[in-house]
Structure formats: C-alpha cells, structure tokens
Amino acid sequence: MILLTFNLMNIESETKKEVQISDDERLAINEANTKSVLRILDIHEIKASFFIEISLVEKLKNLIKAISAQGHEIAFYNKNSSASQIEEAKKFAEDFLEKQIKGIRQKEFKIAESDLKLMGFSYISNIDNADILFPFKRLKRDSEITEENGISIVPESISPYSQLPYNDFVFQTLPMKYYQNMVFETLKNDEFVLVYLDSWQFTDVKRYQFKVPFYRSYNCGKKMEDKLEDFLTWINEKELATSRMKDYIF
Q: Mind listing the pLDDT tens digit of every residue in the chain (250 residues)?
C-alpha cells in the first residue's frame, strides 16, 4: 500500500535582493501549489492525505473545503503550535467540514501522545528532519504501526535496501526510475510505504527569487509537478494500491 501525503505550509525562505513577498502572497503561492497537486491527483484518480499547518487552517478554509470535497483526507501539521491552538483549530475545521480530523503530523515541536488522544486524534505521523547527511544516521526503522496511550503511531518509511527515507527531499532529488524501483522493492518487504511531500516544493523559486540552497531548489516548481505526474502514472500502470492514511490505519 502506498500512503501518499502532502504537508501544506507556506514557503519561509528569504528573497533575493530587494524583493519583498508578504505573508498574504506566500499564502497565495501555497494555494496555487496545492491546486496544482489536486489537479494532478484528480487526473490519476488517486486519493491522498493533506496535513495542514495549524496556523493556516482558518486562512485556508476554502482550499481545505475543496481538498475534502475531492475525497482527500484533511489532517494537521504541527509546526510549533500549543495544545490549546491545536484544539481550537481542530474544532474550527471539524465544524465547517462536518468531519472528524483524525490525524496529526509533528516534526521538531511535539505534543504528548496522551494530550493528542484527549483532543480526539486517532493517529500521529511524526517525521524527522531531512538534511544532506541523513543517509548516514538513519540505518534502521521499525516499519510497523504501533499504539501508545490509545493512539496509533505511524512510522516514517525507509527503504530496507537503499536505506533512504521516503521524505520530501528524496523524492525531489532522486531520479524517478530509481525512486520507483525503491518503492517497488520496499513493498515486497513492508506492508506500506509512507511518502510525503511539502507544498512549498512546487514553488517556482527562481520566479519569486527565493533564497533556497541548490540541493533544495533542484527540481522545484514545474519539475516537481512533472515528477508527481510520472510517479502517479507509474502507480496506476503497475496497479499498486493507494490509500488515505485514516482508511489504511482503521
């Protein structure tokens, strides 16, 4: 099973020279990127899970409605929000969606599993920091979903062969043929592969003159759209199963 997920967040990079981009413009870029992703998913009839950064939930209300209306899962991404902010955003989203938010993803800033359970979350999908040295420090990972304090913990997938994680950085930089082979071989060993991408990766960083390191700007923008197209085409050609995270876990 392939669990395809997207983290919706504004690009934070500074801009070059005297170029100024406001928070509203960054939000608009995020929305445009996400709509491109939705278009591609719709063409290939594949459903995914979208993890919305907590501070953007109210600002992206219409976009979130559109994502949900297309049959995708809405979940949360906790960048640095407090428990009370998460709880407030959860209530707000559930009220206008009339659906329960079951999942949350965390990275550096993490709320305790017991507190998230009390808020009504059913699963946690924590991810690690990705830097250029990651292959040397992540050589083993439990690939099974576990339960702690009554909430499911979904591990970040890693290839047992190449030792590479299925994170945003790897998808962006690896040749697609190699990436496809990695996924195919991993599915022979593990029950699922959790893939995640960030909405900011679909930004044309040259157009907006964002200061992004070369290894992070490589294949950004339209090239990321093309890579996603190729990946989803391959998934359908190979008749590989995909699922929203909440459907697979429960």
A: 999 999 999 988 888 877 888 999 999 999 999 999 999 999 999 999 999 999 999 999 999 999 999 999 999 999 999 999 999 999 999 999 999 999 999 988 889 999 999 999 999 998 875 554 454 445 456 678 998 888 999 999 988 888 888 999 999 999 999 999 999 999 998 999 999 999 999 999 888 888 888 878 888 999 999 999 999 999 999 999 999 999 999 8
Inter-residue contact 159 to 186 (CB < 8 Å): yes
Residue whose C-alpha is closest to residue 54's, from 95, 97, 117, 101: 101
Round to the nearest angstrom and report the end-to-end CA distance of the chain: 14
Tokens of 166: 């299925």
Decide if 12 contacts 56 (C-beta within 8 A).
no
pTM above 0.85, yes or no: yes
Backbone angles phi and psi of 124, in degrees to 5: -120, 135
Structure tokens at 50: 């979208």
Nearest to 209 by CA among 16, 11, 13: 16
**In DSSP terms, which residues pair with 50 in a beta bridge?**
6, 74
* Cβ-contact 92, 58 below 8 angstroms: yes
Residues sharing a CB contact under 8 Å with residue 221, sequence separation 6 or more, in sequence order: 202, 203, 204, 205, 206, 207
Length of the chain, in residues: 250
- CA 180 and chain centroid, separation: 18
CA–CA dist 10, 32 (Å, integer): 11
Cα–Cα distance measured from residue 203 to residue 213, given in angstroms and rounded to the nearest whole number: 14
Cβ contact 200:224 at 8 Å? no
